[in-house]
Design the sequence.
């Protein structure tokens, strides 16, 4: 239903993961609050052609040592890897985005109890439980009584689940390897080292309870 003063975008079925309720039914629209100023026309390049968001930012980009600009560039570049993951998930794993997220969370951090898994996913326990039930029925996760408590269930990835994850990651690696062949060897090594450093920085932020600038 249309609402006066709101803009509604219709989204293709299955393109948006479910919200924290765990409902995997397709979203049909997103309603945005009323605009406080008239919409502006999209920016154009010198030839008059419209530019997308990243092209517009690059056209007005500041120096590379500007942290905000560096964050924009890294985020934009990371979309390539996100797209590779989504394409590989659709082609090789047969899982929805939210199911894949649950499976990867248990693989990376498990075995987990339901409460800990819900915390990792920032979802409610009931929604997480429904997703785990589906993945358990598919043979990708297992739920066993924890060794330290007969009242606690331990959730872990099955061998079939590991196979699904490996198919996904193998597909990503093939795409990444193909792209790396178009870079000079020295650039390949620099990129790999930089990403390892970036991963360590993210993990350090997570272990300290949040993300943000490092203390000086």
Sequence:
């Amino acid at each position: 239903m249309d609402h006066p003063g709101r803009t509604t975008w219709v989204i293709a079925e299955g393109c948006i993961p479910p919200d924290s309720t765990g409902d995997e039914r397709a979203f049909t629209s997103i309603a945005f609050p009323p605009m406080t100023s008239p919409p502006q026309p999209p920016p154009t390049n010198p030839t008059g052609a419209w530019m997308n968001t990243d092209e517009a930012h690059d056209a007005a980009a500041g120096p590379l040592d500007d942290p905000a600009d560096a964050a924009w560039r890294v985020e934009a570049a990371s979309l390539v890897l996100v797209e590779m993951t989504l394409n590989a998930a659709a082609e090789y794993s047969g899982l929805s985005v939210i199911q894949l997220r649950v499976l990867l969370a248990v693989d990376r951090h498990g075995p987990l109890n339901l409460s800990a898994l819900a915390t990792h996913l920032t979802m409610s326990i009931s929604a997480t439980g429904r997703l785990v039930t589906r993945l358990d029925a598919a043979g990708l996760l297992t739920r066993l009584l924890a060794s330290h408590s007969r009242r606690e269930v331990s959730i872990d990835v099955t061998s079939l689940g590991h196979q699904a994850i490996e198919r996904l990651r193998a597909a990503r690696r093939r795409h990444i390897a193909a792209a790396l062949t178009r870079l000079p060897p020295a650039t390949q090594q620099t990129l790999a080292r930089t990403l390892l450093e970036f991963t360590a920085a993210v993990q350090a932020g997570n272990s300290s309870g949040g993300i943000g600038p490092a203390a000086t």
In short: Strands lie at 7-10, 29-32, 141-145, 153-157. The chain has seven helices and four strands.
